[in-house]
Design goal:
Helix 1 crosses helix 2. By secondary structure, this protein is mostly helical. A hairpin with a 2-residue loop joins strand 1 and strand 2. It contains 4 helices and 2 strands. It has a two-stranded antiparallel ribbon with strand order 1-2. The protein is 72% helix and 8% strand.
């Protein structure tokens, strides 16, 4: 797992490689100012950090499935004495681990 500083370094390099970047202001296209480049680097660094630290949450939410599907799994587990729901949840968690 990358440190925040490493991710910021990557973001800085990506913005530098993408130059020139442009803004549309009052129907005129102009290149970013130094302050806008600095903000773009900060924003991209923060975005990379958030994705690394919290991306697993969205991945888990998508993989869990709907509440109604989970309740159906729990019902049939109860009826059939199976562990389908518990196994499903454990797999989602192992496939999308929380960063340490």
């Amino acid at each position: 797992m990358a440190t925040k500083e490493e991710l910021q370094t990557q973001a800085d390099a990506e913005i530098e490689a993408a130059k020139p970047l442009y803004a549309q202001v009052n129907n005129e296209r102009r290149e970013f100012t130094d302050a806008e480049y600095a903000q773009a680097k900060t924003d991209l660094g923060n975005s990379k950090w958030d994705a690394q630290q919290f991306g697993y949450i969205q991945a888990r939410q998508e993989a869990y499935g709907s509440v109604s599907d989970q309740l159906d799994m729990q019902y049939w587990d109860n009826v059939n004495s199976t562990t389908t729901w518990k196994d499903h949840i454990a797999k989602v968690k192992s496939d999308n681990p929380k960063p340490e």
